[in-house]
Design goal:
The chain has ten helices and five strands, in the order βαβαβαβαβαααααα. By secondary structure, the chain is of the alpha/beta class. It has a five-stranded parallel β-sheet with strand order 2-1-3-4-5, with helices on both faces. It starts with a strand and ends with a helix. The model has no long low-confidence stretch (mean pLDDT 84).
């Protein structure tokens, strides 16, 4: 028996989902809720297997985080999500276990609920691509953060500029010293930051001094 809580501010949506599952063998709707606070309270009281969350755009991630924090064993399914919904990634990061799109049939909704209880997450190809793209982006960010700065990637001019930065010179002063345009210096500084994985002038200069 899969026990559910349905959370939705729209009565028709809330009652429709409750009726859908009440009429299916193997499911029990133990509570319904209107708001975030009410939903969290109902989930805490009943400890359901799955919470169906159907809130408006932007409100879902907040509720998912609250539910995931207060009931970590409850699987959370976001209902009424479009393939291009900007909340797809925030919901995943908040702890959602599954998605039901706006075009899903009643059988598909049931399938998603059954799947998340088995630690599976069926979703559309576009949703899957969006999520995988985010995972790839996060992995690249971690790789860059963990990678050791490679001074060999700096050009001769970039080494000159970073050493002048270490001497405390501004972009304008560096441009004057090297007889180049200030915009050219700014471009070099940007490239230096990218190559050394830093965001401050002092950090770039410190790396060069340590490895000199």
């Amino acid at each position: 028996m899969i026990r559910l809580v349905v959370i939705a501010p729209v009565r028709l949506y809330r009652e429709g989902l409750a009726v859908l599952f009440a009429g299916r063998d193997g499911f029990e709707v133990v509570a319904t809720a209107v708001s975030t606070d009410d939903g969290v309270a109902r989930v805490r009281e009943t400890s359901p297997d799955v919470a169906l969350v159907a809130l408006g755009r932007g409100a879902g991630p907040e509720l998912v985080r609250a539910l995931a924090s207060s009931a970590p064993d409850t699987r959370i399914v976001a209902v009424g999500i479009a393939d291009d919904d900007p909340d797809v990634l925030p919901l995943a990061e908040a702890g959602v276990a599954g998605y039901v799109t706006t075009e899903a049939s009643s059988d598909e909704i049931v399938l998603v609920v059954e799947s998340v209880t088995r630690a599976e997450m069926p979703c559309s190809p576009r949703l899957a691509a969006t999520l995988l793209s985010r995972v790839s982006s996060l992995a690249e960010q971690q790789r860059r953060q963990g990678a050791a700065p490679d001074l060999a990637t700096l050009t001769v001019r970039e080494r000159e500029i970073v050493e002048l930065i270490g001497d405390g010179l501004s972009n304008k002063e560096i441009a004057s010293d090297l007889s180049i345009e200030v915009t050219t210096v700014k471009n070099h500084v940007h490239n230096i930051f990218e190559k050394l994985h830093v965001s401050r002038r002092a950090d770039a200069a410190a790396i060069v001094r340590r490895r000199a």
